[in-house]
Write a structure and sequence with these properties.
By secondary structure, the protein is an all-alpha fold. The chain contains 14 helices and 2 strands; from the N terminus they run αββααααααααααααα. Strands 1-2 form a two-stranded antiparallel ribbon.
Amino acid sequence: MARCGSARRRRRLLRDDEDRGRLHRATIGRRLGGLPGRRAERRRPARRRRRRPVRLGGIQVSGVAGQASDLLGSERAADRGRLLTAAGLAVFIIVSLAAVAAKGVFLSRDVIFLWVLLGLLAVSLSDINGYLRGVLTDWLPFFGALFAYDLLRGVLADSLFAAHTFPQIRVDEFLFGGAVPSVWLQERLFDPAAFHWYDFAAWAVYLTHFFAVFLVAAYLWRRAQPSFRRFRNLILALTAAAFVTYMLFPAVPPWLASDGGNLGETQRVVGAVWSEIGVSPAAALWEKGSSFANEVAAIPSLHTAYPVMILLFFWPTGSGRVRALCLAYALAMSLTLVYTGEHYVADVLLGWAYAAGIYVAFGRLSVPWRERARRPAREIVRPT
């Protein structure tokens, strides 16, 4: 009996050992990804993507060396682009100075437009395709619209409406106690026999009207093209509003009213300075003849409105220096126009008002467009 009991005990221990062995193998199999009770098989490691070898100086390199090669190539391309820009800008400046010395100061819009395009080409030699695309899509429409304005403004010189002489004189007399500022300033400051420093300063400020807008537009086109397009649209809208006013209300400037005997002695200071310094404007390419001139397009003063638009455009985002510079420019142009006999104070104030009105109108109209652009193309309405 004792032998039988010990045999049963040994068989029970053997079964327990076998059960523990199977359990151990199953656990190991599950951990290694195999089936319980079977030999576990290791998973194949993921295949690593082979990097394309890079050749540097005829020697094949890869890995970190290849990345360093790519970085070195991009730095060299950037250096080459900066070198091209500097060289192109230097050549452009030299050619511009030579052209001014030979032909005179650029004032006509067509010559200035060509000059600006050549300047943009000089600083875009590293991206010729982008330059050509910008000329076609951004600059040609801009120039085309302003060229049409110049042509139509000349047509308005033979307007059906008579040019107004006295309303603007009466406004200036009302604002300044019976005196007209253009006459008052020239009586005290201008001497055609002895020019002063401020006469030349006024001449220089007046000339900036012909190219300041294009220089600002070129700067914006190089730095931020969406800002360029917004500025361009503001200038075109302002020009269109002035054109409509010229058509409906032609107005005589101070120097022309003085020539007609309707105002005290007032001279065209800018023209007198031209004669004094012996420099002449460069001839226009296309805008030639009286068809592009209109001496009674004085209200509002676009000479004032353009600097004011530049001031308003840069005021929200510009630094303190930029704001001060733009404000000083707008005020200097306003004073220059009155002193030189080109505009009355009434014309200048309307120039400020037109620029402010167009700027505010664009701001209010652009808000719904921006909100519409952010809105999904099709909104899903869920049932409530």
